């Protein structure tokens, strides 16, 4: 049979700053302007968020900082936390850690809260641009990602390390997609950079969820590679990413090793106490992880997943300001409550009535974002469709925690490392 002629080579357009660089620079400037406008009280009024977790951290780190300022040395123990604690779990400086300069570069010297938000916009933009979206579309995707309410809620609570780990996750995802679908070396470099900063953010639970997401993608890519007889190419790309992962973990090896070493002495380690089981021959030893009830204390209700689309489906938050004409205000007046007392009550009403315990607000993605996601599932190629759908479903099921115990208790007991984490509802970060 005659062979088909090879397709003509597509000429590569010469580099042009105005076409290839300027639109991306403008997009970054827009991200910066959005950050300044949204956090204008920080930039123009000298205000900041009262982050409860940050206040506790400052109290615990005060002795460390005072000692370092007085002696120039890094103390490895503090007496100001509980009955004493290693300082590498609170605030420790590691000599030779050059990744701190990358962090300063990416956040362009912005204040902490604003810098985390800008980082979310920037990294999400890089993800969309890396997989082929034009500057305008990539910017729209970055805005939708950054303004998801979960990002705002964790910033308000002071979960800055979690916020940074989430912000760098798009770089990791983008690197994997580019490596397998365009250029393994470019993707490997982006993956290594993103994972280095993600791990350095020092929130292993977010990194763990990110790893589960990428394992699903890798499994689907492997199946596709076997079917399409390109296994060698898959293994080569996987090897590049594996080397990148080793380098990324190596940058934060000191943090990871010391935390791992301390784990066995904490509530995440194996207890020396035993629990007597009625009828058993000997007391049953405790597991080598968190207590199940403690870990699943914050579990999202199954029906609460609807808040991704309808924010106030379960009332909203534990602290919401209601108006003087609200039904609650009317009911309080009818019961004879004084006007001043009613006004005070209305400033912090617990309108939330779901299963998650105490929440600062609903986890809402946006109706437009939700619509575009569903539309994307109908148009994207099959392998990506199953990856995205499986990731979202996994995140929702894990977040349900004790409300879907048949699966989640099994994973907690047998999935390696999973029993070291609490606040299971955090898995909603995957969707």
Describe the structure in your own words.
- Helix 6 crosses helix 7 (135-146) and helix 9 packs antiparallel against helix 10 (184-200).
- By secondary structure, the protein is mainly alpha-helical.
- A hairpin with a 6-residue loop joins strand 1 and strand 2 (85-86).
- The strands form two sheets. It has a two-stranded antiparallel ribbon. A two-stranded antiparallel sheet has the order 3-4.
- The protein has 19 helices and four strands.
- 58% of the residues lie in helices and 2% in strands.
- The model has no long low-confidence stretch (mean pLDDT 85).
- It is globular.
Main-sheet strand order equals 1-2
Low-pLDDT residue intervals, each spanning 5 or more residues: none
Pairing-aware structural class of the strands and helices?
Answer: mainly alpha
Q: Give the overall shape, derived from the CA principal axes.
A: globular
Spell the H/E element sequence. Answer: HHHHEEHHHHHHHHHEEHHHHHH
Which range best describes the helical content: under 10%, 10-25%, 25-40%, 40-55%, 55-70% or over 70%? 55-70%
Work out the radius of gyration.
Answer: 25 Å
**Largest sheet descriptor:** 2 strands, antiparallel
Record field, number of beta strands: 4
Between the first and last Cα atoms, what is the distance in angstroms?
Answer: 50 Å
Strand content: under 5%
Total helical segments: 19
Fold blueprint:
Blueprint: H1 17-20, H2 22-38, H3 40-44, H4 52-71, E1 77-78, E2 85-86, H5 99-106, H6 112-130, H7 135-146, H8 149-157, H9 160-181, H10 184-200, H11 204-227, H12 231-251, H13 253-263, E3 274-275, E4 284-285, H14 292-295, H15 327-334, H16 339-346, H17 367-379, H18 382-400, H19 405-414
Antiparallel strand pairs: 1-2, 3-4
Helix pairs in contact: 2-6, 2-7, 6-7, 6-9, 8-9, 9-10, 9-11, 10-12, 11-12, 11-18, 15-16, 17-18
């Amino acid at each position: 049979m005659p062979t088909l002629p090879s397709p003509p080579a597509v000429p590569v357009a010469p580099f042009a700053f105005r076409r290839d660089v300027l639109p991306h620079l403008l997009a970054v400037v827009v991200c910066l302007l959005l950050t300044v406008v949204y956090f204008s009280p920080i930039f123009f009024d000298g205000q900041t968020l009262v982050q409860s977790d940050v206040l506790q951290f400052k109290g615990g780190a005060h002795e460390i900082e005072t000692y370092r300022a007085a002696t120039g040395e890094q103390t490895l123990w503090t007496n100001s936390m509980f009955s004493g604690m290693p300082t590498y779990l609170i605030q420790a400086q590691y000599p030779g850690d050059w990744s701190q300069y990358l962090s300063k570069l990416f956040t362009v010297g912005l204040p902490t809260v604003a810098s985390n938000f800008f980082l979310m916009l920037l990294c999400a933009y890089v993800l969309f641009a890396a997989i082929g979206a034009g500057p305008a579309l990539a910017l729209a995707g970055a805005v939708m990602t950054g303004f998801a309410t979960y990002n705002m809620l964790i910033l308000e609570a002071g979960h800055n390390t979690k916020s940074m780990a989430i912000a760098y996750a798009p770089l990791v995802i983008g690197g994997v997609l580019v490596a397998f679908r365009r250029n393994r070396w470019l993707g490997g470099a982006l993956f290594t950079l993103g994972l280095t900063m993600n791990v350095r953010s020092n929130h292993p639970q977010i990194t763990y969820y990110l790893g589960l997401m990428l394992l699903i993608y890798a499994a689907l890519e492997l199946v596709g590679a076997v079917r399409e007889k390109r296994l060698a190419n898959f293994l080569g790309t996987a090897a590049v990413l594996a080397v990148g992962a080793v380098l990324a973990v190596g940058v934060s090896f000191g943090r990871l090793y010391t935390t791992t070493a301390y784990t066995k002495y904490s509530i995440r380690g194996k207890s020396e106490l035993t629990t007597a089981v009625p009828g058993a021959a000997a007391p049953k030893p405790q597991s080598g992880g968190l207590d199940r009830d403690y870990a699943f204390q914050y579990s999202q209700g199954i029906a609460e997943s609807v808040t991704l689309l309808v924010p106030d489906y379960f009332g909203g938050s534990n602290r919401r300001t209601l108006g003087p004409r609200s039904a609650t205000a009317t009911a309080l007046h009818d019961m004879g409550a004084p006007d001043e007392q009613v006004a005070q009550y209305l400033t912090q009403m617990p309108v939330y009535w779901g299963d998650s315990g105490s929440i600062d607000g609903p986890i809402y993605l946006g109706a437009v974002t939700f619509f575009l996601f569903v539309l994307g599932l109908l148009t994207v190629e099959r392998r990506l469709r199953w990856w995205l759908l499986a990731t979202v479903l996994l995140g929702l099921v894990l977040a349900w925690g004790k409300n879907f115990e048949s699966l989640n208790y099994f994973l907690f007991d047998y999935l390696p490392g999973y029993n070291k984490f609490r606040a299971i509802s955090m898995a909603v970060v995957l969707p």
